[in-house]
Hints:
Layout: E1 3-5, H1 16-19, E2 25-28, E3 31-34, H2 50-54, E4 62-64
Antiparallel strand pairs: 1-4, 2-3
Amino acid sequence: MALKIVLDECTSCGDCKPVCPTKSITDKGGIFKINKDTCTECEGEFDEPQCLAVCPAGDACIVPIAA
């Protein structure tokens, strides 16, 4: 499973990018995206996704990709 960033909720603060252990978060002009092919939701490394832990908008901004 992977996560995605809801653009309408993202404040473009950039807090998520440096904490991603798989370097799955990129930004282009302040628009942040999570690469679904490399995102592991931090499983096996942390108890919770690190991007979600630091995001000021929380689970309104960073959500699981619907299957």
